[in-house]
Write a structure and sequence with these properties.
- The protein is of the alpha+beta class and 220 residues long.
- It has 4 helices and 7 strands.
- The chain has a 7-stranded antiparallel β-sheet with strand order 4-3-2-1-7-6-5.
- Strand 1 and strand 2 form a beta hairpin.
- Helix 2 packs antiparallel against helix 3.
Length: 220
């Protein structure tokens, strides 16, 4: 409260530029409370209450789950949604669901077992539905990437194979004209035409079976 009696309002801080979310588009934004399973103590421990988001990168299309505490904005969860992930309803509580993830919220990769609780059954079901759809879309993205890579490799191999075939054909033509005509100059002048033009000019006469009367294509 100021001396004039007016309440001071804290300025709204724009965190987008400081959170690394500038290149991401939110596809989910919900209030919730997050827990992680403590293996040593064999119990659930609260990670924080705040907003959970699913953020899709505008260039790579990768999606990550990020959750921050409401007041401190401290990160509670930060991991990619992978094709292998599944989310399930928590036993005995239809407002909660659980999943496994390799999380980076604490600055290092750790295997975590998360449980998230929402205010309503609808919110929980919506979260599970979108989470699973994202996991499936990431699977399709990986498959498409593999297909594209395979297609590129096949195209490269086809081009290399074609170059080899063209070289072999050119060598065959050179050998044929060199042996049949005995004139190196003839090949030198014709080689500039290319294999396809030579084939078009001579057609089926290009590689005939040697005749009894002669040793070259002209029967001389």
């Amino acid at each position: 409260m100021s001396s004039t009696g007016a309440a001071k309002v804290a300025p709204i801080v724009n965190l987008e530029g400081h959170t690394g979310e500038g290149d991401e588009v939110p596809i989910l934004d919900m209030k919730s409370k997050l827990y992680r399973y403590d293996k040593d103590g064999k119990e659930w421990k609260e990670r924080g209450a705040g907003t959970v988001k699913l953020l899709k990168h505008i260039e790579t299309s990768k999606v990550r789950l990020v959750m921050r505490q409401s007041k401190t904005f401290k990160i509670c969860a930060n991991h990619y949604v992978l094709p292998t992930m599944t989310v399930q309803e928590y036993d005995g509580n239809d407002k909660s669901c659980v999943w496994h993830a390799t999380d980076f919220a604490d600055g290092e990769l750790k295997d975590e077992f998360f449980c998230i609780r929402f205010a309503s059954v609808k919110d929980c079901k919506d979260f599970m539905k979108i989470f699973q759809e994202v996991a499936e879309s990431q699977k399709n993205r990986e498959e498409n990437k593999d297909v594209t890579a395979a297609a590129g490799l096949l195209e490269k191999l086809s081009l290399e194979e074609k170059k080899t075939e063209d070289k072999d054909a050119k060598d065959d033509v050179k050998a044929y004209f060199g042996s049949c005509c005995g004139q190196g100059q003839l090949w030198s002048s014709m080689s500039s035409l290319g294999v396809k033009k030579i084939a078009a000019l001579f057609g089926p006469c290009l590689f005939p079976k040697p005749s009894k009367e002669g040793n070259n294509i002209f029967g001389v």
